[in-house]
Amino acid sequence: MANHPTGLATASGVVDAALFSQLVGDQQPDPQALASLAAAELRFAELDQAEHAAALARAAAVNQTELRPSGPHRADDWERGWAENLQLLAAGAPDALVPKYNRHEVLRLAGRYVQALTPQFEYQLYTALRHHWFGRWFGDLTHVVEFGCGTGTSLELLAARFPDLELLGLDWASSSQQILAQLAARTGAQLAGRRFDMFHPDPTLQLPAGAGVFTSAALEQLGADHGPLLDYLLRQQPAVVVHLEPILERYDPAEPFDAVARDYHLRRNYLRGYLPALQRLAAQRRIELLAVQRSGFGSFHHEGYTAVVWRPRRGGTA
């Protein structure tokens, strides 16, 4: 089932409040999200029919190449990747923490390929999406924990928006913890980092009472091996869990535009079965499934920005 916003109002334009409302499924998006969009002026041009067909063929061709699948064997790759960002941060480079995978120019938007006309289009729209979901769910909390925090851009965003929040970033790469230490020293944010392996959750790590949990482009690395982390979260009883992740089950394999992204997702061994697991838990009344919103926005290859929000029911365990 596709379940994504479709139909751009114009072949070229800007991501305005109306389009953003479609992406988040809310007629009254978060004001700070809209302010960030207005400041960024995210302009795009929709590809014409021939260009769209060529992009679809190119995406399909990429899927036939040797794509490296996700999994625990990638730990060293992420260590090296975040170490590069750490070096850029130490050198004072602008946008040192923006991951390299957020830099596509042909993107997926509302069921079509579009050409980004604004620098850092993908990252800026991703930032607006984060603002929206942060504003909806984290404004009344005292603690937020991000699993798979990488370079800490989401924690940096949270610290600037909610200065009183106590923040903890978890990642399996030591370079991530070094980045967070530098960010805390430079900004004065209440921010700490700790090593954490989502494939083998550390039972000694107790989340603060009433903490919110966030993940983004992190669970994708788990493939079908998300059971241990889900069990851990159920035991920890966070106040709310907010994911921005690629969700396999939101694609419609009968639609070519979806099928090529779904194929990429599977070949990369990205997250699968997680949403159905949450839906089963909701049917058993172990959790409340608060939101599932496919944005219809993504990189050239797939959509990594579906929002899934849930919280355990009191006493609910796996």
Question: What brief labels describe this structure?
Answer:
Rossmann fold; single chain; 10 helices; alpha/beta; 5-stranded antiparallel beta sheet
Describe this structure in words.
The protein contains ten helices and twelve strands. With 318 residues, it is of the alpha/beta class. The chain has one domain: Vaccinia Virus protein VP39 (Rossmann fold), CATH 3.40.50.150.
Quickly count the helices: 10
The rough form would be described as globular
Strand arrangement across the biggest beta sheet: 7-6-5-8-9-12-10
Helix content: 25-40%
Radius of gyration: 19 Å
Q: Which helices and strands appear, and what pairs or packs with what?
A:
Blueprint lengths: L11 E3 L2 H8 L6 H10 L2 E4 L2 H15 L11 H16 L15 E4 L2 E5 L4 H17 L5 E5 L5 H9 L4 E6 L2 H14 L3 E5 L16 E5 L10 H10 L3 E6 L10 H12 L6 H10 L3 E7 L3 E2 L7 E7 L6
Helix pairs in contact: 2-5, 3-9, 4-7
Could you write a compact summary of the structure shown?
Helices cover 38% and strands 19% of the residues. It has 318 residues and is an alpha/beta fold.
